[in-house]
Amino acid sequence: MADRATERMTMAAPPERCFAVSSDIDAYPEWAGDIKEVDVRERDAEGRPTLVTFRAAAFGRSTSYTLAYDYTQAPKVLSWVQTEGDITAKLDGSYVFEPAPGGGCEVTYHLEAEMKVPLPSFIKLRAQSRIMSIALRDLKARVEAHP
Q1: Which of 47, 66, 110, 115 is 20 to 30 A from 125 in CA distance terms?
Q2: pTM (2 decimals)?
């Protein structure tokens, strides 16, 4: 069974900026802490990555997974579903970008993850929390550092 989680963070940038940084998947290894390598396998007519294989650090080892990106709700939502994974059976999620009261952007990160191998709940929760906090924290740092 997949575990679902949602976290929010306010960023000092407009929603369009937050979407632009999060959808620049080629640049993830430059700023996304656990992402070691990105291989864009397919792009849409606008040149946006639609099928991407990642190599990332996870559980003290390297893991690979492929995500299919959906831009139908851009620039409000960037969503993805996993198509392949070596240790994950599911790694589906989305970023939702909305104007924050008082300025900036509220980013909501949804993640649904399922491991191929059963793990104790506390390990899954710790891994999921790490993925989400790093994803939001690193995105915030990148968005706010490069206006």
Answers
A1: 66
A2: 0.90
